[in-house]
Inverse folding.
């Protein structure tokens, strides 16, 4: 009789321990699951933010604005240390009598034009395509005196050209692969964490 009662008590204790472990396991699974979801969302948001490149509005000439420069190479020098990408904008601002007109390479080099210039400041011109863009002032001899600008527009995902003296470096992975990689890592981490909890009571 006593042996039967002890056996019954042992079974009840084992059953209770199993239920406690199972209850704890389910609770931890829920906690880990919710945490993993937030972890994946946070990493995905960071990845998308990292791959985005904000558009820039370039104020042509900086503080000097758009005017007849003292040096013929002024606007060439101004543009030389800047990166122009599709989606960026050029802002031409001036006082006095000036204008701005986009022209061909030949029109830029010879200060000739056939279009209708914009003579009201400020003028904002979006850079919508990749390639070289040319702009001149059509007022009198202003273009011949150096009031002209050429820029080279690249895509947002293109890397800036390396300096001639800089050794070539391996190309960086395409930006589009970053979100996929981060999401894969996050999902792997979440799966591992949940799996660890599932086997805690085995």
């Amino acid at each position: 009789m006593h042996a039967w009662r002890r056996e019954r008590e042992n079974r009840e204790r084992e059953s209770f321990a199993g239920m406690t472990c199972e209850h704890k396991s389910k609770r931890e699974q829920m906690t880990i699951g919710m945490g993993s979801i937030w972890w994946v969302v946070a990493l995905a948001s960071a990845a998308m933010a990292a791959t985005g490149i904000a558009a820039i509005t370039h104020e042509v000439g900086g503080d000097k604005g758009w005017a007849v420069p003292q040096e013929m190479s002024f606007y060439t020098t101004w543009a030389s240390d800047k990166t122009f990408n599709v989606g960026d904008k050029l802002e031409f601002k001036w006082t006095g009598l000036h204008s701005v007109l986009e022209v061909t390479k030949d029109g830029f080099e010879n200060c000739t034009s056939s279009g209708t210039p914009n003579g009201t400041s400020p003028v904002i011109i979006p850079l919508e395509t990749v390639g070289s863009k040319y702009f001149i002032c059509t007022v009198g001899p202003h273009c011949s005196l150096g009031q002209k600008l050429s820029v080279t527009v690249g895509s947002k995902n293109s890397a800036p050209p390396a300096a001639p003296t800089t050794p070539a470096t391996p190309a960086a992975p395409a930006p589009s692969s970053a979100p996929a990689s981060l999401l894969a890592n996050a999902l792997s981490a979440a799966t591992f964490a949940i799996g660890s909890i599932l086997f805690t009571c085995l």
Q: What stands out?
A: The longest strand covers residues 148-154. The chain has a mean pLDDT of 75.
